[in-house]
Amino acid sequence: MDSIIRLPFDSELHEFSASSPTVPEPDGDKSRRKFRTIWISDVHLGTRGCAADLLIDFLDYTDSETMYLVGDIIDGWRLKKKFYWPATHNDIVWRIMKRAKRGTRVVYVPGNHDEMFRQFSGLSFGGVEIKRQAIHKTADGRRLLVVHGDEFDAIMLSHRWIAFFGDQAYSTLMRCNHAVNKVRRWLGKPYWSLSKTAKQKVKNAVEFISRFEDAVAHEAAARGVDGVVCGHIHHAELRELSGVAYYNDGDWVEGCTALVEHFDGRMEILNWVDEMAAREAEQLILKIAA
Which positions ≥6 away from 233 have C-beta within 8 Å? Predict the structure, then answer.
């Protein structure tokens, strides 16, 4: 499958080929876990913080009838300053485009970091539908609002310059996170998120997350839907708020999580670091037993 992807950043147009993956996709789909729907967000392609290897593994071991890309898939803020696009990031785009080609419905709801794609809302590229927001109907008949979530972030709405300053600080933390995990891989240890741990320790961050969740849930209730799926804050969650179901699919920088819908409508958050560890342990047991 050959395709040319063009990324618009203001007056510049960055182009790259997504003709073939450098990390080969496994043959067949017998090992793939199948779901009715998958939601992922906050991948931040174009940054060193993106856990591309883990996301590639996720895409190779899962499948679904519908996939939602819930914003910040490509980090335009960082790419405007310095174009960084390793082969593994190309591999992720290739895999997503291939899903759309083989019949998966792929819906892209851009976020604040990839807001340059919002101008294409209502259009479809390579089978990928671009929408400002979406309504998803679950297998058990519930209606879920799907939005990135930056529209409920008070800092993004009223003090955009603070958001850009925070992005700079966050990028520095993610560079440290990248270095730490490079050493951990060398030592044979699993992925660990320095930034996620730091966030959990900071009281203001916890309060911000709580306020954000309340605002999103309140808006969903006001719109008369049964629940909401969002991303933006890099904090996976699944709970009831203000009488509606609140789902946050997390991210692929810190937590490496996805939200999935089973064929009976049941929702689940998959932590892919844990999923990989469990799969590798099972393979080791089978190898020893053989």
Answer: 149, 153, 208, 209, 212, 248
Listed in order, strand segments (DSSP E) in the chain are 4-9, 12-17, 33-40, 62-69, 105-108, 124-125, 128-130, 134-137, 143-146, 227-230, 237-241, 244-248, 257-261, 267-271
CA atoms within 13 Å, Cβ hemisphere of 100:
19
Separation CA 187–CA 138 (nearest Å): 43
143 neighbors 223 (Cβ within 8 angstroms): no
* CA separation, residue 222 to residues 89, 145, 150, 183, 217 (Å): 38, 11, 18, 48, 9
The segments of the chain whose pLDDT lies below 70 read 1-19, 28-30, 154-184, 189, 191-208
What angle is formed at CA 119 by the lines to CA 253 and CA 143, rounded to 5 degrees?
Answer: 65
Q: Which of 4, 10, 38, 54 is nearest to 277 (CA)?
A: 54
Average pLDDT, rounded, for the chain: 83
Over residues 231-266, the pLDDT tens digits come to 999 999 999 998 999 999 999 998 999 999 999 999
Residue keyed to tokens 């789902």: 247
pTM, to two decimals? 0.80
